[in-house]
Amino acid sequence: MSLLYILSASTLVYLLVKVIARLKQIRQALEQIGYSPGERTVIGFSSALGQVLPPIPYITLGHSHYWYSKYQIFERLGTDIYGTASIFPSASYFTLADPAAIKQVSYTRNNFVKNTAAYKVLEAFGSNLISVEGELWKRQRRIAAPAFSDNNNYLVWEVAKKFTEQMIHSWGTRQSITVHDVSEDLALPLSICVIAEAGLGQDVSWGNDIVPEGHKLTFKDALTVVSRTMFLPLILPNWAWSLKQSWKDAKQAHAELRLYLHRMIKSRRELKEQKIQDVINQKHDLFNQLVFARDADDMLTEDELIGTACNQHSSKWHETTAHTLAIILGLLALYPDVQDKLSRQLRELQNEHRELTYTHFHQLRYAMAVVYETLRLFPMATVMPKKATSDTIITTGFPPNARTVRVPASTVVHVCSTGLHYNPSYWESPDEFDPERFMDPHWNRDAFVPFSLGPRACIGRRFAETALVAELTALISKYKVSIDQSRFKFIDGETILERRSRLIHPKVGITLTPASYSLVFSPRD
User: Fold this and answer.
1) What domains, with CATH codes, occur in the chain?
2) Binding site residues for heme, as ranges?
3) Which residues bind heme (predicted)?
């Protein structure tokens, strides 16, 4: 028997064993979702290859498929819950767009927890409330929750208003101001300033700050670079940082921000007890409150504080509020009737109260409706993965059409915010931008999940809402926003939905990121 024959036979047997093993894994993946109708692909959505390839029928869904498909897959399958299975890797999961099922998954923590494997990218600076689960999450939340208070919300309003007015002052008295990239040149810098002062307790200004002694960058500059390069430490080996100048700059910014935070923690924890109480009572930014937050004798460690500060304040919240503000301004430019109504409400309230403060927040109902409708159409997180901790049952739909779906332990369940937000069973004309739907006091709160639901809902929700409404109030009360048609040409015959899609054209990342577009701000009479 020749050596070639033996090698060929051995290779064939090896491949056969591999194929049989793979087929067995595929069968197990399909059994895990009960052979539920849905998507079947060669390459899995969560795999590295699946995250970079565009959508290819039967090959891969593409990492942005939840944004682009919205409710289409559910509609095609005739169900608000479907299963997806892939060959490489052999994996499966359920996807939900049913409010009752999503509520069950979000609130029953005995059966479902956050799928923390999907959030490891948020641990570049350490563990934090977003990325952890179980007893560690309970402990961190118990200690941190009191910091998210009305005192902080008052501060957020004042800080957001102050920086928006500083930005407006920098525009001078020109008849109109063109912001060429509303996200990069307006929303992101504004958000950085608000996070720096109301979130992290640092005095910054809209303009250039002075680099303090012992540092190479200002706090604001370090925070800005880190917010844009948060994940580089997770993917770059130490030897690679010097290969590109931008990576060198990022490494320096990461080191500078850590140095700032270490010094901030050290200086605060060296205070005597009476002085600590003075700081707690007088400085209501989140970082100061978190440094001194405790449950009995338990405090957040220095690593936990830095992880929370960097990952939550400078990444998640910063991008969420900035990208949402940029999209809101784009939508107001596209829908002048909505903008005019918002301006009228602001003018009426200002005539009544002269100056609007956080105490008037609940009267700014239409401004909040504009924010909510924007987040319904453009949720910052298109999917929120959960994981079953035990065998359980999900109920979807309502009698007499309700049905149950068996969910085995360890099964991943995707809460699809875009599927839910565009579900016509719960939102009339779901593609339309109509803030009026949120003026109805009985609007369906279970069908709206931009901040998630249940115990794991975003702890900084009111922080973001307050900042957005304060910024909108300061901007729209003084300026009319319009499309810069010298850069964005209108096309004859296109619908408003086509124009909106072409203008906003977001990309899917950790948050939904709008395209670069230019807006014109004209002073109101």
Assistant:
1) 3-96 (no CATH), 134-523 (1.10.630.10)
2) 458
3) 458
